[in-house]
Amino acid sequence: MNVVELARLQFALTAGAHFLFVALTLGLATLVAVIQTRATLSRSPEHLRMTRFWGQLYIINYAMGIVTGLVMEFQFGLSWSGLTHFAGNVFGASLALETLVAFFVEATFLGLWIFGWDRLNRWAHLSLIWVVTLTAYASAFWILISNGFLQNPVGYELAGDTLRLVDFGAIVGNPAALVAFGHVLGGGLVVGGFFMAGVSAYHLRRRTAEQVFFRKSLRVGVGVALPATLLTAAFGGLGFETMQPAKLAAWSGDAAEIARVQAEMAARYGPGDYLPPVGWVSGSGMTMMTLFALMLFFSAASFLLMLFKPLVRGFRLWHWLLTAMIPVPFVTMISGWIFREMGRQPWAVYGLLKTSDALSPISEGQMLTSLIVFCAVFGVLIVVNYWLLARQARRGPDEVALGDRLELVPTF
């Protein structure tokens, strides 16, 4: 592998790992906010316990997501200085807004929510989790605005060897970004819904003591997963209308169409290979579509099954399958992300800057060393995150620390 391929692999692994945390964060934040709203309106102790249990799982995942997100931001300057020099004046504005939202507003209100249990009145505390949820959406929005510009550059003018922002409204209204935003939000709800349903099914199958608690949680998870899957599919279909011709050709696999698009782009941009890797695009796209069909069928069947209380209580095969489905939305999200990003190649900024020209002046040895270090660190983070999630999920609601008041004991 040459230095460009190593750099692309490093960023792909970094962004892909971070994306897994983001997907669960978006879904769980919404579900926790909805459950706490129910608890606040009804003063239901059971829903308050549900808020704390699922909220603690959300916090574990959020903390790991912050770490991986920081690393990804650094890579723009370390590995892709050509991209930041050429287009940083345009897409850097939305990246800066995402940083402000995620690391200042969202993190601040999340801290207030964590430490505000039994210290704030219930309405003020409820408002905090909704601010956290909405700022998580805002963070995803600004990231996808940046990504949408790379996919479909708008609102710029060329000034020498750099781009200059001339229409911020065009960037914010970029169809390639807005459709992707709806698609990702729907996908996050799918991930969160299947996660909640799968963990609940694990406890129901093992006949743990908290049967009522997890029956209610299972209904919430399944009740969100089905409409979220349909919403994600709707935005995914709209995404094909904003897709680049080369990606559509690679997805179709039609040799004549591929040759036609390649000839058109060579005539426009000069000699070169302007097609994305067909195998990656078609393979990831087919994986995404196949798993979507599986999730749609399973969530629809589960929605019907949950209407019958005896099945919710005792259908152990269904419980086992729900638990086994937990990783499926994650794999689907990653497949969709590969489909979107690989389909943009060989461009870093579509039609304006090639990926090979976006790379920093770095040697192959330095890039390989960096890749190995990143893979090791991220591998540990992913293992630790999912070990912590699994351990906390298995323990159940009685082992939750979130919301416990700590007595301050003076020391001398």
Radius of gyration: 23 Å
| Beta strand % | under 5%
Query: How many distinct beta strands?
Result: 4
Q: What are the segments in which pLDDT stays under 50 over at least 5 consecutive residues? A: 406-412
Mean pLDDT: 88
Task: Walk me through what this model shows.
With 412 residues, the protein is mainly alpha-helical. It has one domain (3-244, 276-399). The protein has helices at 3-42, 45-78, 81-115, 122-151, 168-172, 175-205, 211-239, 245-252, 255-269, 278-305, 309-314, 316-324, 327-342, 355-358, 364-395, and strands at 156-159, 162-165, 347-349, 353-354. The protein has a two-stranded antiparallel sheet. A two-stranded antiparallel ribbon has the order 3-4. A hairpin with a 3-residue loop joins strand 3 (347-349) and strand 4. Helix 1 packs parallel to helix 15 (364-395) and helix 6 packs across helix 12. The protein is globular, with a radius of gyration of 23 Å. It starts with a helix and ends in a 17-residue tail after the last helix. Mean pLDDT is 88; it is low at 406-412.
